[in-house]
Amino acid sequence: MLTEVLERSRGLVEDTTYRRALDWKKAGGKVVGCFPVYTPVELIHAGGMLPLGVVGGGTSVELAHADSRFQSFVCSIAKSTLELGFQGRLGLLDAILFSSICDVARNLSSVFKRNFPGVHVDYLHYPQNMSSAGVIDYMESELRRVRDNLQRVCGVEISDDRLSASILVWNRWRALIADLYALRRDEPQKISTVELYLLFRAGTLMPVEEHIPLLEASLAEFRSRTAKPRDCIRVVVEAAFCEQPPIGLIEVLEEAGCYIVDDDLLRGWRFFDTPVGEEGPPLRSLAAAYVDGSTYSSVRHDWRKKRWEGLIDRVRLSRADAVIFMPAKFCEPALFDYVLYREALEKASIPHLMVEFEEKMWTFERTRNEVETFVESMLFD
User: For the domain bounded by 18-158, which CATH number is listed?
Assistant: First the structure.
């Protein structure tokens, strides 16, 4: 079964026509696009709609229109997402949600709204001052605004009861993802990052109720695997929180001698370090989870704990030997933070390597050589 699940997952990930979401649409459902990084999927799910991960076009989309809307120094994901719209591949969307990742995402929201007036486009203004006394109140009011707009899209009241039920479902889903990550951290020989990533990302492209049984069955099979550990170094991958690297690049890291024991791939779909509160007003619980229960991120500004301290904690928790920074080309949040992370890692005597990518990258030999050299320098130093 596991082989079939992984093959199906790869098919969904590589399919930029979103065929599973189209089936949902043909059955009468509504679809809401979720642009990285974090989207409150519980609000979408509680309205009976499908939250769909929209993370660019990968290597299969040729830019024919989007280049004229953006500067040449803009990240690939913004251009290819817009191109997907121009090519009609996002015609299934009833709405799409953007958030305060960076200036490019902010502008993409406006450009998308101007070019596709038939789609409800919303922009989530996440709080920037987590130490403010009114931050949870502000976050709750912003979630309420988005909920009210989504109600008009789905034609269903997103009641507290419906939202509470959705929180339960998504807590369960995130718990299973966390279990898979824990298994890879503790026994990386049993589950490769490519397998984990394909299975994980497939869940952003199908109904959560359909994905949970696949996660449960796959987790059981991964745990029962028998595999001998390889002579690899343990690494944390950092800075791939928005635009996603090509699967071939992840494969290269593993083939070159890296056990990836933690990463920030698709970070927004597992944004919370603890479950969302299941008691009390659900909007308040979601707001409190974002403010006090979220992981560190280059797109979440919280000076109560510095982001580089969060990275050091992750390295130590996962017993990693090194960090591989993997920012997308032109990703300002990641590249700005690299300076801070590098300084913190050097102070902690933790080796690191920078590997830049873009989603249309298709040849990896230079990267392979760099990573192999890095691995050998650590194994044989």
Answer: 3.40.50.11890
